[in-house]
Amino acid sequence: MENENIQANTPVTEKKKKNKKKWIIIAIVLVLFIAIASSGTSEPTVETPTDEAGVSESVNITDNSKETETTSAATDKIEVGSTVSDNSVKITYKSCNADFKKYSQYADLKKGNKVVQAVFDFENISETDISLNSFECYADGVKCDSFYYVDDYDDPAFASISAGRKLTDAIVYYEVPANAELIELEYEADFWSEEKYIFIIK
Questions:
Q1: Are the beta carbons of 59 and 69 closer than 8 angstroms?
Q2: CATH code linked to domain 45-201
Q3: What is the pTM of this model?
């Protein structure tokens, strides 16, 4: 009887128990990792403006079956009237003004520059509250500054939207060179993958 108790508490038995716990912990970590990775893999989509027949087309950004589509949200050029969405937010690019003039007379605009305006709607299509990311503006590949000298400035950056709710008519303004040929607004679609939606201002 005494020998059985000694055998039950031998170092070999304790080592087996520790190994078993280690493998259980590793299995739990792997399951959590797979669950997190699979939840963030939904592909963003773009809904293009309606055609002449009034038919709206929904296009998967990562589907390269058409010449007008690209393989990544980071390189997709989104025009006014389009809607993009992923698994948390739907963004509608409502309008833009490539030569906005209704700013304050006291604005200190640099010589040779102009102001551009873009208007967006955001809809939280997830089941939890979300915080929006900020836009960055580039004119011919050069980063531009935000412009604040307007009455209705309503930058959506870091705004919070409850599940199933909307933020409408969010407006951004930027000061850009007047002779810029390509003006783009970048919005970070996914913090982890760093994919971006690129909205074109014409």
A1: yes
A2: 2.60.40.1240
A3: 0.64
